[in-house]
Amino acid sequence: MNQQSQVAVVGAGIMGEALISALISSGVNPELITISEKRADRSAELIAKYSIRQAPLANNVAAADALLLVVKPQDMAGVLEEIKGTINPSAVVITFAAGKTISFISKGLGTDNPVVRVMPNTPTLVGAGMAAASMGAGVTDTQKQFVLGFLAATGKVIEVTEELQDAVTATSGSGPAYFFAFVEAMVAGARDLGLSESDATTLTIQTIVGAAKLLEESDKSPTTLRENVTSPNGTTAAALASFASSDLNSMVATAMKAARDRSQELA
Questions:
Q1: Taking the CA of residue 258 as centre, how many other CA atoms within 13 Å lie in the half-sphere pointing to its CB?
Q2: Fewer CB within 10 A of the end CB, N or C, for the chain?
Q3: Which architecture does CATH list for 175-265?
Q4: pLDDT of res. 5
Q5: Domain coordinates in residue numbering, the chain
Q6: Fold of 7-162
Q7: What contacts 159, CB < 8 A, 6 or more positions away?
Q8: Are 111 and 89 in contact (CB under 8 A)?
Q9: Angle, alpha carbons 180-45-74 (nearest 5°)
Q10: Please, which pLDDT band fits residue 1 given cuts at 50, 70 and 90?
Q11: What is the mean pLDDT of the chain?
């Protein structure tokens, strides 16, 4: 594959748009990106915004060198059934559906197309995503580099064996929601202490954003940074002791296991 390869994107929702943007950022000519989307207004919006093309699903997959399946897990089987008779036999198929295995995609297509399974997350929408990719049988080095290359334009990407994809889902795939839930809890706690909704929200979000930036840009570990802000018998120590008494580590581990188990059930 090269920058002149034809790319089909099936499903042009929010994540689909983020991936289109990443493809273009990685050097793919917008005229070589073709979407298939049921909503005409959405298609028109993306065509105007990115100068990409649109085609009926069968035509799109027949011409594509790379096929991005950005559909909901519950819709995947129907899409595979629809495209299996027309897909370009040499195209690499890249699936972004949580829980859907490489085997599921291959069996649904009934072809020998190489398949790459990817778990992205929602910060992809702002160029700060975390993606993990697993390569199926027959994926060439050129195809692999193409996939890893455009995913890098969404933030960061790692390669993992497929049996770890459910763990990835529980960590980075679902992880942003854990973070948002914690922010909600902090805002509520600040309101209970007497702060206004507006001030509680501003204080919490900037604190979280600042802490994340410090963690990213510092060469120190999360443990060291936590210790640096925790004076013996001080206010932070009191709060952390409360977390410990509620067994925060166990609570988080249990929640992540629940996400992992659900990902396995979706397969």
A1: 8
A2: C
A3: Orthogonal Bundle (1.10)
A4: 86
A5: 7-162, 175-265
A6: Rossmann fold (3.40.50)
A7: 132, 133, 134, 135, 144, 148
A8: yes
A9: 55
A10: low
A11: 95
For residue 84 the two structure tokens come to: 């299996």
User: What percentage of the chain exceeds 90 in pLDDT?
Assistant: 94
Distance CA 103, CA 126 (A): 31
Q: Is the pLDDT of residue 142 over 80?
A: yes
Neighbours of 216 (CB within 10 A): 8
This prediction's pTM: 0.90
Residue indicated by tokens 């501003």: 202
pLDDT-derived band at 52 (thresholds 50, 70, 90) equals very high
192-213 residue pLDDT tens: 999 999 999 999 999 999 999 9
User: Which tokens sit at 92?
Assistant: 């690499």
Amino acid, res. 170: A
User: Are the C-beta atoms of 8 and 113 separated by less than 8 Å?
Assistant: no
The pLDDT value recorded for residue 69 is 98
